[in-house]
TrEMBL record:
<dbReference type="Pfam" id="PF02770">
    <property type="entry name" value="Acyl-CoA_dh_M"/>
</dbReference>
<dbReference type="GO" id="GO:0003995">
    <property type="term" value="F:acyl-CoA dehydrogenase activity"/>
</dbReference>
<dbReference type="InterPro" id="IPR006089">
    <property type="entry name" value="Acyl-CoA_DH_CS"/>
</dbReference>
<dbReference type="Pfam" id="PF00441">
    <property type="entry name" value="Acyl-CoA_dh_1"/>
</dbReference>
<feature type="domain" description="Acyl-CoA dehydrogenase/oxidase C-terminal">
    <location>
        <begin position="234"/>
        <end position="374"/>
    </location>
</feature>
<keyword id="KW-0285">Flavoprotein</keyword>
<keyword id="KW-0560">Oxidoreductase</keyword>
<dbReference type="InterPro" id="IPR009100">
    <property type="entry name" value="AcylCoA_DH/oxidase_NM_dom_sf"/>
</dbReference>
<protein>
    <submittedName>
        <fullName>Acyl-CoA dehydrogenase</fullName>
    </submittedName>
</protein>
<dbReference type="InterPro" id="IPR009075">
    <property type="entry name" value="AcylCo_DH/oxidase_C"/>
</dbReference>
<dbReference type="InterPro" id="IPR006091">
    <property type="entry name" value="Acyl-CoA_Oxase/DH_mid-dom"/>
</dbReference>
<dbReference type="InterPro" id="IPR046373">
    <property type="entry name" value="Acyl-CoA_Oxase/DH_mid-dom_sf"/>
</dbReference>
<dbReference type="GO" id="GO:0005886">
    <property type="term" value="C:plasma membrane"/>
</dbReference>
<comment type="similarity">
    <text>Belongs to the acyl-CoA dehydrogenase family.</text>
</comment>
<dbReference type="InterPro" id="IPR037069">
    <property type="entry name" value="AcylCoA_DH/ox_N_sf"/>
</dbReference>
<dbReference type="InterPro" id="IPR013786">
    <property type="entry name" value="AcylCoA_DH/ox_N"/>
</dbReference>
<dbReference type="InterPro" id="IPR052161">
    <property type="entry name" value="Mycobact_Acyl-CoA_DH"/>
</dbReference>
Length: 379
């Protein structure tokens, strides 16, 4: 791995770090924690997203024609490290920016690109992603929400669940089955759906920590214009697996986030005058070592991308890194709760149970690692 930074990348870091120091407030750092908790925090983060967009810092990996900076992989790496270590709030449209926007850039019409992307970047519009269903979570290809063509419209019926910010969203990237007779991976299409259309019912879901960042969404004879199709008809699987070429260094957030959380935990131990117990120190040391290992693992995936390594290495290593990140997060949360047990860490303890599920379950990621990294056969 070669992670030496050229002078222009360090200049990029210095410029961005100075901008953050001048604009990021302690109030915003506090709001970064679960911005969906109440409307006031949500609006603070929305305003911050607009501030970053107006200054050209909201989506550095995007091409310049869509409001980005066309950042290199190393610049993306620096950007991710600096935002995480500065404790800046994540974008409200983090799924939109990282997953939906690249698909719109690749498959959308010029009108969709010029109209939807700037508003997404500023969080003027909130986006959600209609993937998971009650019987199609990790196995997306098993989805059953139907879209039937009727003239110049699709009629949509079905249900989505665990839809992040579904109750706040104006737009949804919706995956639907348009050919029930085709093999399950080949009968899926992607639609860009206005959440204000008649027949859409959204019910917020309250999770263990008392928050409602997710929703279940029901579609009852919803008529979606046919020109809302994103990508080819029955080509939704291809859209879903679009290479995220505009966010190649996103893995850096995994280790940088855990480094920040460990620093905060050590500071809380010191303030409470606990943590000098040998068992606690051993657990802290193990976490620090595993986070360092996670950093190397993430950098290996980024390096493969940077130096033109096989895509299978980058993808397989990133899947392994996500698995390790989820396990570290749960162990860190357990240690914090065991020693401190206060409200702040209690909340993270509850939230951490989702880390091995959200963004790809550990079981699925282990299958990817086994097959694409270790070369083991399917059973």
């Amino acid at each position: 791995m070669d992670f030496s930074y050229p002078a222009e990348v360090e200049q990029f870091r210095d410029e961005f770090r100075a901008w953050l120091a001048a604009n990021l407030t302690d109030e915003l750092r506090t709001a970064r924690r679960q911005p969906g908790r109440d409307d006031a925090q949500f609006e603070k983060v929305r305003a911050w997203n607009a501030t970053m967009a107006d200054a050209g810092w909201a989506a550095v990996s995007w091409p310049r024609e869509y409001g980005g900076r066309g950042a290199t992989v190393l610049e993306q790496l620096v950007y991710t490290e600096e935002t995480t270590r500065a404790r800046a709030p994540l974008p409200l449209n983090v799924i939109g920016m990282n997953n939906i926007a690249p698909a719109i850039m690749q498959y959308g019409t010029e009108e969709q690109k010029t109209t939807l992307l700037p508003r997404m970047m500023r969080a003027d519009d909130i986006w959600c992603q209609g993937m998971s269903e009650p019987e199609a979570g990790s196995d997306l290809a098993s989805l059953r929400t139907r879209a039937v063509r009727d003239g110049d419209q699709f009629v949509v019926n079905g249900q989505k669940i665990w839809t992040s910010l579904g109750h706040r969203a104006q737009w949804c990237q919706l995956y639907v089955r348009t050919d029930p007779d085709a093999p399950k991976h080949k009968g899926i299409s992607c639609l860009i759906v206005d959440m204000a259309l008649p027949g859409i019912e959204v019910r917020p879901l309250v999770t263990l920590n008392g928050e409602a960042d997710f929703a279940e969404v029901f579609f009852h004879d919803v008529r979606v214009p046919a020109d809302a199709l994103l990508g080819p008809l029955n080509g939704g699987w291809q859209v879903a697996t679009t290479t995220l070429s505009h966010e190649r260094a996103g893995a850096a957030r995994l280790y940088a986030e855990m480094q920040v959380r460990l620093e905060e935990l050590v500071a809380d131990f010191a303030a409470a005058k606990v943590g000098d117990n040998p068992v606690t120190q051993r657990r802290l040391g193990e976490l620090a070592l595993r986070i360092r290992y996670l950093e190397i693992l993430c950098q290996r995936a980024i390096s493969a991308s940077l130096h033109g390594g096989p895509e299978v290495v980058a993808f397989g290593t990133a899947s392994l890194a996500k698995t390790v990140w989820g396990e570290i997060g749960q162990e860190l949360a357990a240690l914090a709760f065991d020693v401190l047990g206060n409200d702040r860490w209690c909340d993270y303890r509850l939230t951490s149970r989702s880390l091995t599920i959200a963004g790809g379950t550990t079981q699925i990621n282990k299958n990817i690692t086994a097959q694409r990294v270790l070369g083991l056969p399917r059973r």
